[in-house]
Request: fold
Amino acid sequence: MPRPLYPIDSLLPHARPMILLDRVVERQADAIVTELEIRPGLPFFRTGQGIAAHIALEWMAQACGAHVGAVARDSGGEVRVGFLLGTREFKSSRDWFVAGETVLVGARLVFHEGETAVFDCWVMPAGHSSGEAIASAQLTVYQPADVAAMLASQGIGAAGPQGAGS
Reply:
């Protein structure tokens, strides 16, 4: 069943320019599809080359975050910080995404328990019905209920790591 499409900026605890996705184009209970146009001026864009394929990992992570943020918004909750714990089987059929192309970035929830979730993610050209991903990976993500307590447990306070600057 389709879900409301929120502005991408309202789903991630980032600010532009580090929100790398342009918009949400589709949602289901367990999945999200976002869109991005490769263009000069974006973070990580290199003139004459575009954006390196490994940056697709961050696009995928942001798609996971957008899904979690949208689920939170659906229930009246707040969008919270999450962390990428790991990546499995990252594959890309190319080295660069080039200026002028538009890609879809999708994430489908495959496992969720407590504060940890696993998503199957993909990138494919927009407007192509072949359904072949040009990049894919499985991401494990973590969203602590209390970020400050989690950081404090690692010796990181509001001012950064303990002892920093001393």
